[in-house]
Amino acid sequence: MTDKEIVLEYFSVKSPTLLPILKEINFEEWFEKEISNVNDIYKTLCRTIVGQQLARKAANSIFSRFEQLLDEDISPAKVLALNPDDIRAVGLSWAKVRSVIDLSERITNSDLKLENLSSLGDEELIAELSRVKGIGRWTVEMFLMFRLGREDVFSWGDLGLKNGLKKFLKSPDVTIPEMMAVVESWSPYKTYGAIAMWHLLDNR
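RE: above sequence
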């Protein structure tokens, strides 16, 4: 993660009106510890699948039960050895059960090589992980931002970010091309701009 003072200095030139919002944010609360080893990547992807479209508290509760089902040792082989009904019983929807199993199968048969992910560019990584059932662009973008520490990502599939931009720009009728031009001016730190938009919605 880039030092906060460097990010603030950049936005003081590129987007001075964003600066007061950024100064309010503790970025360390947003970015989780970056991961690189394959076991942690696999566990994180499972957690990402479990948490889709759920509030954080509910997601954490279900994932905790998922971990307990696997005796705190989440691996593709152990997941594939389970009865799908048992995975469903800890609170995953059937769609998420299929997604976790598909992820595990792709890793086991070397169709998906987790050790290569961190070396891929953002779009390459999105394409690679989107081959897994139930993993789409938004899910991968959250993974890129908060677990791989990619600092130049903005998720256009996130309604909250678009609403945050409209609020930030004080223009409910602003067009997508106009919003995209603003966001592009934040590069190479678009992730910080995205965090500012979420913060703006939650706190004002």
